[in-house]
Amino acid sequence: MASRQIREKALNMLRSLPRVGIYNIRDNPGSRKTQKRGRGQHGGDKHGAGNKGSGQRQNYMRLGYETGNNPFYLRFPSENYYKGHHLKRQYPPLSLESLQTLIDLNRIDTSKPIDLAEIVKSGCYTFYPDEKQFGVHLTDEGANIFQAKVNIEVQWASETVIAAIEKNGGTITTAYFDPHSLFLLKNPKRYFQSGQAIPRRMIPPPDAIEYYTDASKRGYLADPEKVSQARLELAQKFGYELPKIEDDPDYEMLCERKDPRQIFYGLEPGWIINLKDEVILKPKDEQLIQYYSS
Amino acid sequence: MAAVWRSCGPFLKGFAGKTSQIPNNAADFIGRLRPVPVLILPVNYSSYAKSPFVYKIEERYNYDVVKKPIEWKYVERLLPFETIPNPLIKDKYPSGWVPPKEEAKELPYFIHRSKNHFLPVYLKISLRGSKKISIIRKIDGDIWLLNDELKKFLKDKNKMYVETRVHELAQFIEVKGDYVIDIRNWALSKGF
């Protein structure tokens, strides 16, 4: 009698309870045990570290050390092509295919000029300025499927990439940013919240000046007339008809460029952005204006 | 005399102006005292910008304060997305991405898209690359019917029996082997 009552009570309770789901189940009590390391005379034997020597003492030797032998990495004369690799600038890649995917998924707006801040904002690309990474290298993977008309600013681009973008009526610029500016471009909101004035962009180091003044690389310091000539030359080389951007309805957007001292589009160095009150502080002092315009 | 002593340091502050109270041997005692070095404790600011060298600048320089200027649109452009934006309806997507179709909602089962608007079909590789398992996540509705249809499709396509594991509670199906491309194409053909 009693058992039937209990059974009915239990069934009634089950009916009133919420459905069993992934959010309200848990393991049986005591079903999981954390493994403990024994400490006693025989309980704590070797703890899996083995018998004698560096294994037992767990003094992990440095990488490449061969316990007194002439190590393998020192046995032969070094190869010179890695010399200074830790000082070289790195440009983490982004393919044209990924860029096209970001545009298709509405992560990047092509009606506005695209720069490094916009690419990072999409959430699918990141870089680390403190690890000698100096921005984006646009690679030619997916150059045959790329169909967007963009005004893009990258830090490194090959000839194929430039051709793929200009074929669709877009424009591309390669621009240098110093590490401090790159921190700003990576997370502009954090910098604005810190209440500091937007700094000037520095000029490229001596070994990068050649690249960024080259019209065939679409460098931002190149002569605009030489750039338009290089555009024609590249169109002839790859055998496509160069679309006239002068007749384009988005001509103004396609021709928008940053000043060599400017980090963000439309915002000048020296300005302070107040996100809370939606206020921009522009310097009026002549000393400041002269400093930021130089 | 008192003026000289006063400059010697804090030790004699109590005696300032009270020359009569100073004991007779005080002058000898003071002669041995060195000037007390001023202790300068190093102050660590969290950054140079937060040091007084910088935050006092605002008093020195003149700024033009503009509320919601025309340039504010450039600032808004830089602010991060609050949520992942939804894709717009376009004639074609050159990247190969396919939008989900409305007709898929009428089927007895449904596969939701991931937060990045891709199909949740993945390949799990374990045991140093020797074990490959394709997994379909986010399945709603009749998961067993989906399992049967998918199994039949994969068997016809590859002319080989495929092993599957259905997890009804966690809403996923695991397929033994690398069938990610086949499964993805099948799901796209159904309209998910």
TrEMBL record, chain A:
- InterPro entries reported in the protein's UniProt record: Ribosomal_uL15 (IPR030878), Ribosomal_uL15/eL18 (IPR021131), Ribosomal_uL15/eL18_sf (IPR036227), Ribosomal_uL15_bac-type (IPR005749)
Q: Which residues does the annotated region (Disordered) include?
A: 22-57
A biological process (GO) of this protein is: translation
Instruction: Identify the SUPFAM superfamilies for this entry.
Output: Ribosomal proteins L15p and L18e (SSF52080)
Q: Which GO terms describe its molecular function?
A: structural constituent of ribosome
Q: Does the keyword rRNA processing apply?
A: no
| Pfam families tied to this protein | Ribosomal_L27A
Alphabetized, the UniProt keywords read:
Ribonucleoprotein, Ribosomal protein
Q: Name one GO cellular component term.
A: mitochondrial large ribosomal subunit
| Residues annotated as domain Large ribosomal subunit protein uL15/eL18 | 93-173
Q: Which HAMAP family match?
A: Ribosomal_uL15
The Swiss-Prot or TrEMBL record describes its family as follows: Belongs to the universal ribosomal protein uL15 family.
The name under which this protein is listed is Large ribosomal subunit protein uL15m
Q: Please tell me the species this chain comes from.
A: Eumeta variegata (Bagworm moth)
What is this protein's gene name? mrpl15
TrEMBL record, chain B:
One Pfam family assigned to this protein is: Img2
Gene that codes for this?
Answer: mRpL49
Instruction: Please give the organism.
Output: Eumeta variegata
Query: Under which name does UniProt file this protein?
Result: Large ribosomal subunit protein mL49
* GO biological process: one example: translation
Main subcellular location of this protein, as a coarse class: mitochondrion
The parts of the chain that form a coiled coil are: none
Q: Name one GO molecular function term.
A: structural constituent of ribosome
Output the InterPro entries linked to this UniProt entry: Ribosomal_mL49
Compartments where located: Mitochondrion
Q: Which family does it belong to?
A: Belongs to the mitochondrion-specific ribosomal protein mL49 family.
For this UniProt record, the keywords arranged alphabetically read as follows: Mitochondrion, Ribonucleoprotein, Ribosomal protein
GO cellular component, as recorded: mitochondrial large ribosomal subunit
